[in-house]
């Protein structure tokens, strides 16, 4: 009853917007580039001397987006496109002032956008202004590719099979690409796609776009794409399949209690089958993820579980269909719950577009049983549907089911530890205005289990607005006491949350400062009786400089009433009693250096009071130095000092991570990460050598070492050699 009351204002606001949004047209539909079919054989070398490029239409006269969006770009850019029966081709030329140096972090694939001179292509094959694909390259040839969702979010964990080459000169750099039609999804017999081109030039601190885009939005915003016009519909794909087998061998040893490690030889792989040009079937058997990048450790002084992103390739294509339902802390489906310390036997996924407006996601995964712990074999099934409505909005449906197999044969003691089944059913509406200034969401989730203790509700709604100067957001959440999502990410329940923020940006006529302004943000938690349990109020001021450095200062006021016993150091010391109340304030100070420097640094400091009348001093720093484009060195430092009364007294601990990223070429990489977490008494090494000897095909050599420090001493190490190859037709 309480959650309905709080969602009413947001629902009313949605209703008021419907009339103005339903008939809106795409803003930049009149910006068009025409594509013509060619029969010429291309050599992808970054030179572009084929006859086709002399006749192809040119997209040029880019608009500046940053530092200001009211003028044309000062650095000229030109893009041409063509196609044949198998591939889409692109040739882009980026002129620069002679003498200006290129800024490139490394040759690493999926580079950081803000740290490299780069070019990005954004494609919306379904013209839904919501989903698509992005491809790009930096000035020294490192590739970028990802799937696009939610109108402009890009998931770089997705990799596809395509080729590109870059040539760099004193006054320009040139990128040439060939993207197989089989590497992307699109609707057949459609002759117009959404498209845009983006360039970042760090020597002039200028971001530009082929179509005009307001400065408050990313150039990836699909609401502002132009139109790619084909002379004929792109070719039908016919039979489209990819077979990606792997073989690996691992040696290792463990001296940690309760962890046995055996040498192994393993074979498995994936199959991708195009059911239609826009719908794909993915199958995996005996999958392995040993080459996946290690998680960056975080010092945890919160009362709740931390979120770590999914990086396993099988779960990534069209991942937004499964992962974007709800909010960051009310997710009914979180794929990392599958196969967490448990072997995955096999899995299947169907995902993509049934038509221009309807998207489908269907996944089924089967895990093995664990005799050591008694964990039964489990099946995970997810269904997601997303129907586009109005100009860019959609209605989504999700069903998540986790089922324990052979449950009745289990011992009664294990039945109290493992659930027979858990299910979530949800419905949501996502609002996105044609000009992207208004965005919002309303959703409802219902959980089911073997008895009423698993049956609960979760609900949320928000509305946000962003213009050149103003931004604001209002949000409301409610989770009942019994809401259960065993396959999701829901770190807390039994609360009502109200959230709001408002900010203003001044845009001065200055050759030093791009923008500056204040921002207020508040988070307020209540129990179902509307008694306050937590709140944080933050008032800040940020300054963004022309060289892309930034400075921020925030003062905060925080209150916590503990709902359960809690050790304020999270180091297994004495706990504060449930029901105790704590109130403090403090300040955050942050500075990010300019990215074009060879030496970069970002620093954040938190100073102020803490639990039980104590003090907390926190200093975080990220340091980097590059010998471009081959070597990038980095260090992450986090120091916490907790000055508390007895029995805690003074507790301090470090989190240190150092990383060496060596890119011998844009196909041969070596990355080594060292991490020391004094809070968890853990030291780890992850070292990965990757040779991309053919498109999307790799040889990996991965070394892992994890050492538990006193008093829990022990060591686990492994060395894995893995070979993958991408066959496709």
Automatic annotation (TrEMBL):
* This protein's UniProt keywords: Signal
Against InterPro entries, the record matches this protein to: Carb-bd_dom_fam9, DUF5916
Q: Does the keyword Signal apply?
A: yes
Signal sequence span is: 1-24
Q: Where is the Carbohydrate-binding domain?
A: 44-204
- Domain (DUF5916): residue spans on this chain: 242-339, 372-728
Q: Which Pfam families match?
A: CBM9_1, DUF5916
Protein name in UniProt: DUF5916 domain-containing protein
Q: What is the species listed in this Swiss-Prot or TrEMBL entry? A: Flagellimonas halotolerans
Its lineage reads: Bacteria, Pseudomonadati, Bacteroidota, Flavobacteriia, Flavobacteriales
């Amino acid at each position: 009853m309480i959650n309905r009351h709080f969602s009413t204002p947001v629902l009313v606001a949605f209703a008021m917007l419907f009339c103005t949004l339903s008939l809106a047209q795409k803003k930049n539909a009149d910006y068009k580039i025409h594509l013509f079919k060619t029969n010429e054989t291309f050599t992808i070398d970054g030179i572009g001397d084929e006859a086709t490029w002399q006749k192809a239409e040119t997209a040029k006269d880019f608009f500046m987006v940053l530092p200001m969006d009211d003028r044309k770009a000062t650095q000229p850019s030109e893009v041409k496109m063509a196609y044949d029966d198998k591939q889409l081709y692109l040739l882009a030329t980026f002129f620069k002032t002679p003498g200006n140096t290129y800024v490139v972090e490394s040759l690493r694939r999926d580079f950081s956008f803000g740290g490299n001179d780069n070019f990005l292509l954004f494609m919306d094959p379904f013209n839904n202004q919501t989903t698509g694909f992005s491809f790009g390259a930096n000035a020294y040839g490192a590739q970028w590719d990802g799937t696009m969702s939610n109108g402009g979010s890009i998931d770089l964990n997705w990799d596809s099979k395509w080729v590109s080459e870059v040539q760099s000169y004193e006054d320009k750099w040139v990128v040439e690409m060939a993207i197989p039609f089989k590497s992307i999804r699109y609707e057949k017999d459609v002759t117009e796609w959404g498209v845009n081109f983006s360039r970042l030039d760090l020597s002039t601190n200028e971001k530009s776009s082929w179509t005009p885009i307001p400065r408050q939005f990313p150039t990836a915003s699909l609401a502002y794409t132009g139109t790619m016009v084909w002379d004929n519909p792109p070719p039908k794909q016919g039979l489209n399949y990819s077979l990606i087998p792997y073989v690996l061998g691992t040696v290792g040893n463990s001296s940690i209690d309760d962890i046995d490690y055996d040498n192994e030889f393993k074979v498995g792989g994936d199959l991708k089958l195009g059911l239609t040009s826009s719908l794909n079937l993915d199958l995996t058997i005996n999958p392995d993820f040993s080459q996946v990048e290690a998680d960056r450790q975080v010092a945890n002084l919160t009362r709740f579980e931390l979120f770590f992103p999914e990086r396993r390739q099988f779960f990534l294509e069209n991942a937004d269909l499964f992962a974007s339902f709800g909010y960051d802390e009310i997710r009914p489906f979180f794929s990392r719950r599958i196969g967490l310390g448990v072997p995955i036997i096999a899995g299947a996924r169907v995902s993509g577009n049934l038509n221009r407006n309807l998207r489908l996601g269907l996944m089924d995964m089967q895990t093995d049983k664990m005799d050591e712990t008694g964990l039964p074999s489990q099946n995970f099934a997810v269904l997601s549907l997303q129907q586009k409505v109005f100009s860019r909005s959609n209605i989504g449906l999700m069903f998540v089911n986790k089922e324990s197999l052979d449950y009745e044969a289990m011992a009664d003691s294990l039945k109290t530890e493992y659930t027979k089944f858990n299910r979530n059913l949800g419905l949501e509406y996502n609002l996105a205005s044609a000009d992207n200034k208004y965005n919002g969401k309303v959703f409802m989730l219902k959980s089911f289990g073997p008895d009423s203790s698993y049956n609960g509700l979760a609900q949320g709604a928000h509305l946000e607005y962003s213009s050149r100067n103003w931004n604001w957001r209002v949000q409301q959440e409610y989770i009942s006491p019994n809401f259960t999502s065993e396959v999701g990410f829901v770190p807390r329940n039994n609360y009502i949350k109200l959230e709001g923020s408002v900010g203003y940006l001044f845009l001065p006529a200055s050759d030093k400062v791009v923008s500056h302004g204040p921002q207020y943000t508040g988070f307020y938690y209540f129990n179902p009786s509307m008694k306050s349990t937590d709140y944080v109020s933050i008032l800040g001021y940020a300054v963004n400089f022309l060289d892309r450095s930034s400075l921020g200062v925030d003062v905060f006021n925080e209150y916590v009433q503990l709902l359960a016993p809690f050790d304020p150091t999270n180091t297994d010391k004495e706990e504060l009693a449930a029901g105790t109340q704590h109130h403090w304030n403090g300040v955050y100070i942050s500075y990010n250096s300019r990215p074009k420097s060879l030496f970069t640094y970002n620093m954040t400091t938190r100073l102020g009071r803490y639990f039980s009348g104590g003090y907390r001093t926190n200093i975080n720093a990220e340091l980097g130095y590059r010998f471009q484009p081959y070597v990038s060195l980095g260090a992450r430092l986090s120091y916490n000092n907790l000055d508390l009364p007895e029995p805690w007294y003074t507790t301090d601990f470090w989190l240190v991570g150092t990383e060496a990223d060596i890119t011998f070429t844009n196909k041969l990489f070596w990355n080594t990460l060292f991490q020391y977490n004094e809070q968890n008494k853990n030291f780890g090494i992850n070292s990965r050598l990757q040779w991309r000897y053919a498109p999307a095909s790799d040889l990996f050599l991965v070394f892992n070492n994890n050492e538990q420090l006193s008093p829990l001493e022990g060591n686990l190490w492994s060395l894995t050699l893995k070979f993958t190859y991408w066959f496709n037709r």
